[in-house]
Amino acid sequence: MILTVTPNPSLDRTYELPGLTRGTVLRATADRVDPGGKGVNVSRAVAAAGHRTVAVAPMGGPEGALLTRLLGDLGIEAAGVPIGGNTRINVTLVEPDGTLTKVNAAGPELSPAEAEDVLEAVRVRSAAADWIACCGSLPRGLPPRWYAALVERSHRAGARIALDTSGAALTAALAEEPDVIKPNAQELAEAVGRPLVTVGDALKAAEELRERGARSVLASLGADGQLLVEASGAYFATAPVAAVRSNVGAGDASLAGFLAAGGRGPEALASAVAHGAAAVQLAGSLMPTPADLDLPSVVTTSDVPVDRALSEPAP
């Protein structure tokens, strides 16, 4: 069972448009609403793969009630923590060429008592978890060390922790030795304070984060592939993508694939890449099912192409 923690969940509304022109009335060709937030998306991907998952998240107002119902419809146990504010709504506009315009709301502010209630909900449900995936930005009211506290408490309880966040929240948690961190290229560059131009730059950055406490690093390099750096070595994997329809939630699908495949080694990396490649070819933030995956197309190697330039260098 994979337990997910999403401190700032959302309802994700996606509109597909024939084009995006400012200052005009736009008519969507399709629209959908999905449960959102990075940890929630991990739970959705785990459930789509046929595994049990529990989603812990603060939920409030009619938006929180709808989020709980949508998760239930997907077979996900929603361990909602009641809060006084309303769950946020995010909007994604998708153009025919795959260009995305996202508007993410700030979300509610959590009180110290509500923040502690979320930690307690994780403690109560963590005993049955093979992994705890802690994902996304922190809402207003939670200090940068909130994730560090969660990792420390979970390790004391004997749980394995995967952390997907960025900025001060990520750097503060490194000292507590999360079992896996999952930065993208930009987050990796931010964490080490220098630009990443090549795959070799990303490898050195991942190794530095391991030296600072992370036990392993699963780094998404966008269209260039994914990099796994752990105690057993470094691995690199890529997969072909026919056409990108939406990259919303693709990184979360990758993390779900990685954890569902054991959370270590080249086989788990291949599963992560297959899940991510499948997700970007689906509408909105739909999560891939086993029928969507193309594991044979994933190329995994321990010979990391350090001289390969990143197609989108990270500042």
TrEMBL record:
Its domain of life?
Answer: Bacteria
Which UniProt keywords are present, listed alphabetically? ATP-binding, Kinase, Nucleotide-binding, Transferase
- Span-the-membrane segments of this chain are none
Recall the GO molecular function terms of this protein's record.
1-phosphofructokinase activity
Q: Which Pfam families match?
A: PfkB (PF00294)
Q: Which residues form the Carbohydrate kinase PfkB domain?
A: 14-289
Tell me the Gene3D superfamilies matching this sequence: 3.40.1190.20
Q: Which CDD domains match?
A: FruK_PfkB_like
- Give the E.C. number(s): 2.7.1.56
Enzyme class name: transferase
Q: Which NCBIfam families match?
A: 1-PFK, pfkB
Tell me the protein family, please: Belongs to the carbohydrate kinase PfkB family.
Protein name (Swiss-Prot/TrEMBL)? 1-phosphofructokinase
Gene name of the encoded protein: pfkB
